[in-house]
Design brief:
The structure is a single chain. It is built from 14 helices and 11 strands. The protein is an alpha/beta fold. The protein has a domain at about 1-250 and about 480-485: Amidase signature (AS) domain (Amidase signature (AS) enzymes, Alpha-Beta Complex), CATH 3.90.1300. It has an 11-stranded mixed β-sheet, sandwiched between helices. It is globular and about 70 Å long. Bound molecules: glutamine. Glutamine binds near residues 153 and 176.
Length: about 475
């Protein structure tokens, strides 16, 4: 195996800047690996399915100069980010063949910083799922064990980074879709504060929750990628950027840092947590203390209701967002009779079963007569959860939880049981509802598979979060090389 694959993105950039490594050489290495991969991680690859940067004759926004701080590094992009002229489907058959006329702001920023799009990664259709089995274009396999799922919905991005098919990737997280696949694949995943990154050009799932973020081999790479994604955008009125620049994380100790553990978001609060996952969390708490951090109990009394609130709110927003796929404006069109038949056939054929389930749930929750009982009530629960965190952060600097209650589960194991699937997000959904940043860090192994722990902080505390994760990462020394073997 090429020793270049062992480099983190930041290390590769250093080598390129020192002229010890060619940006094109690295890009070609990854392009060949991505084009030949057998995990199902990529839906399209540069050079095979769309031109690589530099091959566009018009020199338009699609071609990135391999200059700037990201030095021409290849970037895997979840398929729900629009990239001009490149098929962008959010892994839905209803968008098959759709080539957007513009590029998502987050991707433009990364290209302006010198990143080059390596390929579009597979995902759960419209980001709805926790296993990547809801993709309209087939599942993704976990590189640690190909009989298991990589998590979802950013499963392609996570598997690509873990397997060394891309140095790093971007994904999106609505209720856990960056953090949970990062945990199941043994990499770092960060969901920033809501609003840190523009949603312009991201194919919408649930707009009040959707947020882009990095999936990387280590914490330093997550900071680097985040730095070049954030910023307010006039095209997204909910975007704010971050109040201070994203720093390179350097901390090696946690002296004085107060880390809260909430019984409601640990083994006491949830029945389905695997003993192996709990054991990794406990040993991580010991490491926190060895590094000088203080572990203390906090209470997040309403967080146990997060999942119920999320599965009203996210489908409600999705049902509204997905109304635009009518066979007229985007992608697929079926039916040649009446307008009604056009809508019905296009949507019946184009959407997969999970997407239909969410549209029905969401439409019902928003219907006259039920709106107050479901949507209104879930909104109130959301506020209570946000207040829980606000109060907890008066006593502690960060909160720690497992990222996922289980390690990667078998392909097909939960597809017939949506409720079991939804439980994968038990620990990640509360932070999404509160809009606060949270990071999943690989912290150990159970049953031969990676286990992630989640750190969450107050809104805009990304630098603190990254620093703490960096210190823990150094002490935990998680070895991810087996996934690239
Ligand atoms: N698994 C959750 C869902 O299916 C979260 C998905 C996401 O974060 N995009 O809704």
């Amino acid at each position: 195996m090429s020793e270049l694959l062992e480099l983190t993105a930041a290390q590769a950039i250093e080598r390129i800047e020192a002229r010890e490594l060619g940006a094109d050489e690295l890009f070609d290495l990854y392009r060949e690996r991505a084009a030949a991969e057998e995990l199902g991680a990529f839906l399209s690859v540069a050079g095979r399915d769309f031109p690589t940067a530099g091959e566009f004759e018009d020199g338009s926004a699609r071609s990135a100069a391999p200059e700037g701080p990201l030095a021409g590094l290849p970037l895997a992009v979840k398929d729900l980010f629009c990239v001009e002229g490149v098929e962008s489907t959010a892994a839905s058959r209803i968008l098959a063949g759709y080539r957007p006329p513009y590029t998502a702001t987050a991707v433009i920023r990364l290209k302006d910083a010198g990143a080059r799009v390596l390929g579009k990664t597979n995902m759960d259709e419209f980001a709805m799922g926790s296993s990547n089995e809801n993709s309209g274009f087939g599942p993704v396999l976990n590189p640690w064990d190909r009989s298991r799922v990589p998590g979802g919905s950013s499963g392609g991005s996570a598997a690509a980074v873990a397997a060394g098919l891309a140095p790093w990737a971007i994904g999106t997280d609505t209720g856990g879709s960056i953090r949970q696949p990062a945990a199941l694949c043994g990499i770092v995943g960060l969901k920033p504060t809501y609003g840190a990154i523009s949603r312009q050009g991201m194919i919408a799932f649930a707009s009040s929750l959707d947020q882009a973020g990095p999936l990387t081999r280590d914490v330093a790479d997550a900071a680097l990628l985040l730095r070049h994604m954030v910023g307010a955008d006039p095209c997204d009125s909910t975007s704010l950027g971050l109040p201070e620049p994203v720093r390179d994380p350097t901390a090696e100790r946690l002296d004085g840092l107060r880390i809260g553990i909430a019984p409601e978001l640990a083994s006491g609060g949830m029945e389905g947590i695997e003993p192996g996952v709990d054991a990794v969390l406990r040993s991580t708490l010991e490491t926190v203390e060895e590094l000088g951090g203080r572990v203390q109990e906090v209470s997040l009394p309403h967080s146990g209701h997060g999942l119920s609130a999320y599965y009203v709110l996210a489908p409600a927003e999705a049902s509204a967002n997905l109304a635009r796929y009518d066979g007229v404006r985007y992608g697929r069109r079926a039916g040649d009779g009446t307008l009604q038949a056009l809508y019905e056939r296009t949507r019946s054929e184009g959407f997969g079963p999970e997407v239909k389930r969410r549209i029905m749930l969401g439409t019902y929750a928003l219907s006259a007569g039920y709106y107050d009982a479901y949507y209104g009530r879930a909104q109130r629960v959301r506020t209570l959860i946000a207040e829980d965190f606000r109060r907890a952060f008066e006593d502690v600097d960060l909160v720690i939880t497992p990222t996922s209650p289980t390690v990667a589960f078998g392909l097909g194991e939960r597809t017939q049981d949506p409720l079991a699937m939804y439980l994968s997000d038990f620990f990640t959904v509360p932070m999404s509802l509160a809009g606060i940043p949270a990071l999943s860090l690989p912290a150990g192994m159970s049953e031969g598979l990676p286990v992630g722990v989640q750190l969450a902080g107050p809104a805009f505390s990304e630098n603190r979060l990254l620093d703490a994760a960096h210190a823990l990462e150094g002490a935990l020394a998680f070895d991810s090389s087996a996934a690239r073997g």
